[in-house]
Amino acid sequence: MASSDPHAKLLQKLSERTARIVILGMGYVGLPLAVAFAEAGLHVTGIDIDAAKLAALMRGESYVEDISAERVRAVIGRTLFTSTDFDATLAAADAAIICVPTPLNKTRDPDIRALTAASEAIARSLHPGMLISLESTTYPGTTDELLRPMFEAAGLRAGQDFFLVFSPERIDPGRKDYVVETTPKIVGGVTSACRDAGVALYRQAIHRVVPVSSSQAAEMSKLLENTFRAVNIALVNEIALMCDKLGIDVWEVIDAAATKPYGFMKFTPGPGVGGHCIPLDPHYLSWKLRTLNYNARFVQLADEINSSMPAYWVAKVQDALNGERKALGGSRVLVLGVAYKKDIDDVRESPALDIIALLRQKGALVSYHDPHVPHIRHDGGDLRCEPDLNAALDAADCAIIVTDHSTYDWQDIAGRVRLIIDTRRALPRA
Ligand code: SAJ
């Protein structure tokens, strides 16, 4: 006998796998999640403002490195569907999962326009028994203070008529050892009934679901994860600056410390911090705390140190050229690797872009090579990847290793260019 109680009805649909799931935002977070639910046999509809993404999926193609075209073809049209009609799709949804970007704006404050637009679309079609899960990284309080009032404005009540949770995404593009199904999933609800509904949803596709007491706790846990990284990367970058002053090899020091079998976690210095998570997420935390008249000092200091690394390394290039009585202005400098970390093609927030801009500001003739990145756009305009690495090395007055892609032959590179600045300890030890 089907229950009239919205909570019981939703739980029943989830346990019978008849629930209809909608993923808002089919990017590097939404697509793997959609495929995981579809492979678990649930009916999933992916919606996105970029119709080209949806068309590619319908053709059986994948635009996300971690999801093969074969996996898309195995579910598309069977349990995975797409739609550009947000309202009709959401009106028929039992669960809506928001996976849209939450970047920073020019003043490095939260830019939640995409999140707000997705939430407004859901609010237009909100109906009894619907579960909404926010996965986009955001400041503590977003789910309960921003989304909940939007959804309750029409008179429905969270925890009784509809259900609202925060469940942070933990997708790490390119990682093979942990994928969406095998990475533990935190779920925090605005009420306990919401939490239970969220746990029932994610248990359909994810091996381990970890309930927490509130949506704020879930939001904060994600920010702790990534602030932890930003702060520890900044610490090791400052240790590198100290060792430079002291004339000590920081890499030897780190390798020695890393022999400690407990109580130490290895991070490595580098050209700065890039990517769509680590340089940005902590600013959602510090922004929220500023509204409460609290200064998140570690976040600010980590950003200061990490953001100062490009200038530090450009000064090293200048010093190396000085040693050859060459001015940086007019010298040919080759940047090796522009992606924000090794073996990927993503240049978002990459420190390489800052290094290139600083070198150009000082009059250097800058070129780059990156096997994963054919061209880059930045404030100085467009740059294309050097087509011939050896020719580019032979022509350079100085090279700087910014991203230590595994495909580079560092021994060969070291033999081809006299001056080389290594920000990643890519070169074999002399
Ligand atoms: N970096 C360093 N030194 C380090 C580690 C990283 O300079 O010791 C630099 C990287 O070169 C890069 C930036 O920091 O420019 C960020 O590196 P990351 O290893 O944190 O990689 P991300 O940005 O891809 O972070 C993602 C995050 N995953 C999610 O948010 C779901 C992060 O939480 C993961 O821990 C990280 O991947 C990972 O471990 O690969």
Shape estimate: elongated
Percent range of helical residues:
40-55%
Number of strands: 14
The fraction of residues assigned to DSSP E strands is: 5-15%
Reported for the largest beta sheet, the result is: 8 strands, mixed
Q: Give the count of helical stretches.
A: 15
Unreliable parts: none
The termini sit apart by: 76 Å
Small molecules bound in the structure, each named once: ligand SAJ
- What integer value in Å does the Rg equal? 24 Å
Give the strand order, joined by hyphens, for the main sheet: 3-2-1-4-5-6-7-8
What is the average per-residue confidence, as pLDDT, rounded to a whole number? 96
Overall description:
The protein is of the alpha/beta class and 430 residues long. Helix 15 links the parallel strand 13 and strand 14. It has an eight-stranded mixed β-sheet, sandwiched between helices. Strands 10-9-13-14 form a four-stranded parallel β-sheet, sandwiched between helices. Helix content is 41%, strand content 14%. The chain has helices at 6-16, 30-39, 51-58, 69-75, 86-91, 113-125, 142-152, 192-202, 215-246, 250-257, 281-290, 297-322, 351-361, 389-395, 410-416; strands at residues 20-24, 43-47, 80-83, 95-98, 131-134, 163-166, 185-189, 209-212, 332-336, 365-369, 375-378, 381-384, 398-401, 420-422. The protein has 15 helices and 14 strands. The structure holds ligand SAJ. Residues 170-172, 225-226, 229, 233, 267-268, 270, 273-275, 277-278, 340-341 line the site of ligand SAJ.
